Amino acid sequence: MAGYGVGLTVDFLGWVMTVVALRFLPVFAGQAVLGTQIAIAAMLVRHAFQTSVSACDLVGSAA
Known about the structure:
Elements: H1 2-24, H2 27-49, H3 55-62
């Protein structure tokens, strides 16, 4: 249960940082930050749950 709260907190902080980035940076830079954040989250889930990454996940992270 504590992991869920930590995950929500990290997700919220990431969202706040994205909003701040969009305020001060061009839109394409803010979108790049958001895309990187999603790819990092996908890789962290792999380690947290000891699962393998599917080809679809790899392609999505690379895009």
